[in-house]
């Protein structure tokens, strides 16, 4: 029997800092089935005690080797039949991927690299993108359906950031980065927010801490849910929770009937 499940993704920019501010209290009312976090910046032993244990029986943490950096986590009510951290894609051991299998559906929670530091880091970001898509395609060839969520660190179209013209030469909106999202969509994946909401404007998921950017809604939509097109008919909603604070990102999510 089909049931609706809600999956929420959030780059928390430090899980301990958000927890100290009560930044997860809204989960009591929302109660998603799966909660995916990026940039947790904590080792497993540094996680706030019992933060999700009473709510999510299945928690997978992938911490970066470098302390206080990156890291991803999936907390789930559902039991995954398999989980992994894809060290063959995240070759720098930066804690960037958690992979959960639920039957024939594979969920990826990914904190994609940022390319703004230098040319070397941009090249790594693009290599990461391609390694990841190749792996997704190998799973699809086995009959798997794919859900990808997380901080992609790229705004896809001019509508996805407040000031596209002035950011044309900034990593995060470079043509070569945006072309990878085009490639992803061309391979049969769907940007769930645009699928549901079309060209709705001023919908962002990240704002700089500088210049009162969030209060002015001078933001970027760089956090996404992509699904393989064989899940399109299962998609019920896609949303951005701009009212949730505690990080420079806000949560994004989807509802699927599976």
In words, what does this structure look like?
- With 258 residues, the chain is an alpha+beta fold.
- It has one domain (4-257): Endonuclease/exonuclease/phosphatase (Deoxyribonuclease I, Chain A).
- It is built from five helices and 14 strands.
- It has helices at 15-20, 27-30, 119-140, 175-186, 192-197; strands at residues 4-11, 34-38, 58-62, 72-76, 82-84, 97-102, 105-111, 145-151, 189-191, 206-207, 219-220, 223-228, 235-240, 252-257.
- The strands form three sheets. A six-stranded mixed sheet has the order 3-4-2-1-14-13. Strands 5-6-7-8-12-9 form a six-stranded mixed sheet. Strands 10-11 form a two-stranded antiparallel sheet.
- Helix 3 (119-140) runs parallel beside helix 4.
- It is globular and about 45 Å long.
